[in-house]
C-alpha cells in the first residue's frame, strides 16, 4: 500500500537534524547515517516542498534532483553493507500537503500561536528528508533554534535548552528506534509539566498556554493509565511519556507521536478515552509498528480496545459492556434506521460504510471500522481465550516485536498458537468477512 512511501535498497540507522526556524522559513541540515542493503548508484529520499541547496554523500558532493522526492546520485556507487553519511542542506517555508490516506492534510501545520507537525502516514517529508516507511526505523536527534521566548518540543528526551543570539535552542534525542511519521514537533508558547507514575515512569507534558484547566484535567490520570496498561501489555517501552497539547482551529485530531502524543484542542471533547487511546499506541503502533499500512488495524484496534478497557477500569465493567454494544450497533446500522426506515436496509448501508478492518482502502485508511470493528474482534477473542491467555497474547506480541514491525499474519499465527485453529478462524471472520459476525454470547446480531 502506498508505493510512493519509503524506498528500497537501504536502511537508515540514524537521523540528526539541525534546524533553524524564524517563524516563516525553515533552514535545515539533515545528516542520515544510511546503510545500503545492495549496491546503489542512486537512491531516493522522501522529501518535498522545500529547496535543496546541496547533498553530500560520504564526504563528496553528490548530484541530486527534486520533484515529488529527492533523487541522490553519489559521486561513487555505494557498496552493500558499508554505512555512509548523507548530508542534505535545505530551506524554505514548510507547509502541509494532501493526505494519501484521505483525512486532514498532513505535514507542517499552523496552530493558533505556533506550529506543529502531524505526519501519519506521509507528512514527515514536509520538514525533513527520510525513508518514510514504518519498516525503516532509526534513532533520532534534533537540534532546533526558534525565536526567543518560544519552546520547541519533539520526541524522546530533552538533552539541552539554551538561549542563543536571537533565539532559543533545544536538543531532543530518541535512543529508541522511531519511524519518521512518529517524530513529534511543536513550536509555540508551551508550558512544561512533569510528574512520575506510581511505577516510576516519567510523564512530561507540554501545554499551549491557551489550553484551559478543563482541557488539562483529562490528562491528570496519565500516570495511572501508564501503570494500568503496563500491567496488561508489559512494561512501558520508552524512557518517558507525555502529551503535547496545542490550541488548534482546523485540525480536530490526535496522533500517537512517539513518547509524546500530539493533541489538538478540538479533539479533547472526547475526554479521557482519547488520552488512553494515544497512550496505548506507544505499545501498539510505536514500539510494535506495522509491516505495511494495510495492517493499520493492528494499531487502531488495539488502541481502541485499550481505550475501552480503561473506561471499564475507571467507570466499571458495565461501561466496557456499553462501549462494546454501542460499537456493534453502529456497525449493524442502528444509527441509519431513521433515514432508511428499514433495519435491513440500514445494515446494508453500514456494510458499505464500515468495510472489513483487515482490508482497508488506501483512500480511506482510517475508516471507523479499523477502530471499532477491530476493537470488537479483540473483545471477542478475549471471550474466546479467557483473560489469562488473551493478555498473554498481547504481552507476547508487545515483547517479541518490541521496537520492530509485525504483520496481520504474524498476529494470526500467534493467536493460533494460543487458541488453536478455531481462534484464528474467528479473528479472520472479524477481520476479512464482508458480513458483520454475530456475538452470540452478548446477544448481538446483525439484522436479518
Concise synopsis of the structure shown:
This protein has 448 residues and is of the alpha+beta class.
Q: Look at the structure and give the CATH class of the largest domain.
A: Mainly Beta
Query: Helical proportion?
Result: 25-40%
For the largest beta-sheet, the strand count, sense and barrel status come to: 8 strands, mixed
N→C terminal distance: 35 Å
Average pLDDT number: 96
CATH topology of the largest domain: Immunoglobulin-like
Given helix and strand content, the structural type is alpha+beta
At CATH's second level, what is the architecture of the largest domain? Sandwich
Number of helices, counting only DSSP H or I runs of 4 residues or more: 10
Number of domains: 3
**Name of the CATH homologous superfamily of the largest domain:** tricorn interacting facor f3 domain
Written overview of the protein:
- This protein has 448 residues and is an alpha+beta fold.
- It has three domains: 1-187, Immunoglobulin-like; 189-280, Neutral Protease, domain 2 (Orthogonal Bundle), CATH 1.10.390; 290-442, Neutral Protease Domain 2 (Neutral Protease, domain 2), CATH 1.10.390.
- Helices cover 29% and strands 30% of the residues.
- The protein has ten helices and 23 strands.
- The strands form five sheets. It has an eight-stranded mixed sheet with strand order 5-4-8-2-1-12-15-14, with no helix packed on it. A five-stranded antiparallel sheet has the order 9-10-11-16-13, with no helix packed on it.
- A hairpin with a 3-residue loop joins β6 (63-66) and β7.
- α8 packs across α10.
- The protein is globular.
Amino acid at each position: 500500500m502506498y508505493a510512493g512511501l519509503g524506498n528500497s535498497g537501504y536502511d537508515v540507522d540514524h537521523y540528526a537534524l539541525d534546524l533553524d526556524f524564524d517563524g516563516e522559513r525553515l533552514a535545515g541540515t539533515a545528516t542520515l547515517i544510511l546503510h545500503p542493503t545492495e549496491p546503489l548508484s542512486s537512491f531516493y529520499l522522501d522529501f518535498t516542498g522545500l529547496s535543496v541547496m546541496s547533498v553530500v554523500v560520504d564526504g563528496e558532493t553528490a548530484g541530486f534532483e527534486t520533484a515529488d522526492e529527492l533523487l541522490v546520485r553519489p559521486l561513487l556507487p555505494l557498496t552493500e553493507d558499508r554505512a555512509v553519511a548523507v548530508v542534505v542542506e535545505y530551506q524554505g517555508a514548510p507547509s502541509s500537503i494532501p493526505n494519501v490516506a484521505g483525512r486532514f492534510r498532513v505535514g507542517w501545520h499552523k496552530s493558533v500561536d505556533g506550529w506543529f507537525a502531524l505526519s501519519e502516514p506521509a507528512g514527515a517529508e514536509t520538514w525533513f528528508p527520510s525513508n518514510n516507511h514504518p519498516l525503516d526505523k532509526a534513532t533520532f536527534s534534533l537540534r532546533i533554534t526558534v525565536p526567543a521566548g518560544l519552546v520547541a518540543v519533539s520526541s524522546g528526551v530533552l538533552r539541552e535548552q539554551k538561549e542563543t543570539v536571537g533565539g532559543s535552542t533545544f536538543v531532543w534525542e530518541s535512543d529508541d528506534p522511531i519511524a519518521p511519521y512518529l517524530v513529534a514537533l511543536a513550536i509555540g508558547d508551551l508550558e512544561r509539566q512533569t510528574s512520575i507514575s506510581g511505577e516510576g515512569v516519567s510523564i512530561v507534558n507540554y501545554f499551549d498556554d491557551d489550553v484551559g484547566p478543563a482541557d488539562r484535567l483529562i490528562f491528570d490520570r496519565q500516570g495511572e493509565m501508564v501503570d494500568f496498561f503496563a500491567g496488561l501489555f508489559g512494561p512501558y517501552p520508552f524512557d518517558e511519556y507525555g502529551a503535547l497539547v496545542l490550541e488548534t482551529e482546523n485540525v480536530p485530531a490526535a496522533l500517537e507521536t512517539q513518547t509524546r502524543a500530539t493533541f489538538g484542542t478540538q479533539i479533547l471533547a472526547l475526554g479521557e478515552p482519547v488520552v488512553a487511546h494515544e497512550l496505548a499506541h506507544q505499545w501498539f503502533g510505536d514500539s510494535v509498528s506495522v509491516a505495511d499500512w494495510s495492517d493499520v488495524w493492528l494499531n487502531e484496534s488495539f488502541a481502541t480496545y485499550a481505550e475501552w478497557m480503561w473506561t471499564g477500569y475507571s467507570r466499571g465493567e458495565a461501561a466496557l459492556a456499553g462501549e462494546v454494544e454501542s460499537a456493534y450497533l453502529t456497525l449493524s446500522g442502528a444509527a441509519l434506521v431513521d433515514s432508511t426506515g428499514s433495519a435491513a436496509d440500514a445494515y446494508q448501508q453500514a456494510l458499505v460504510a464500515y468495510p472489513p478492518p483487515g482490508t482497508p482502502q488506501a483512500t480511506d485508511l482510517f475508516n471507523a471500522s479499523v477502530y471499532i470493528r477491530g476493537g470488537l474482534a479483540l473483545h471477542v477473542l478475549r471471550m474466546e481465550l479467557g483473560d489469562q491467555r488473551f493478555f498473554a497474547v498481547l504481552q507476547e506480541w508487545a515483547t517479541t516485536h518490541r521496537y520492530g514491525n509485525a504483520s496481520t499474519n504474524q498476529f494470526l499465527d500467534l493467536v493460533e498458537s494460543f487458541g488453536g485453529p478455531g481462534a484464528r478462524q474467528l479473528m479472520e471472520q472479524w477481520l476479512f468477512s464482508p458480513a458483520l459476525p454475530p456475538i452470540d454470547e452478548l446477544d448481538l446480531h446483525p439484522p436479518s
